[in-house]
Amino acid sequence: MSQQKPPKKYQKTINTAARLSGSAIQMGVVIYLGVWGGKWLDGHFETENVFLPICTLLAVAISIYLVIQQLKKIND
């Protein structure tokens, strides 16, 4: 028995969903690393919550930038 290939439109939808899922995971990892890095810097330099908000906001900005770049690739 031969299996039929899914229609092109269906395949493109699956591909887009997979890319967006990957972007969400990437965003979570980048933000997690930013928070972890901020906590580590605060502990290393013995400061109280100086680097944590800076690194967190920087990580959020980087992750948003990466998602926007990924969306541009999907729309092309």
UniProtKB/TrEMBL annotation:
<dbReference type="Pfam" id="PF09527">
    <property type="entry name" value="ATPase_gene1"/>
</dbReference>
<feature type="transmembrane region" description="Helical">
    <location>
        <begin position="20"/>
        <end position="38"/>
    </location>
</feature>
<feature type="transmembrane region" description="Helical">
    <location>
        <begin position="50"/>
        <end position="68"/>
    </location>
</feature>
<protein>
    <recommendedName>
        <fullName>AtpZ/AtpI family protein</fullName>
    </recommendedName>
</protein>
<keyword id="KW-1133">Transmembrane helix</keyword>
<keyword id="KW-0472">Membrane</keyword>
<keyword id="KW-0812">Transmembrane</keyword>
<dbReference type="InterPro" id="IPR032820">
    <property type="entry name" value="ATPase_put"/>
</dbReference>
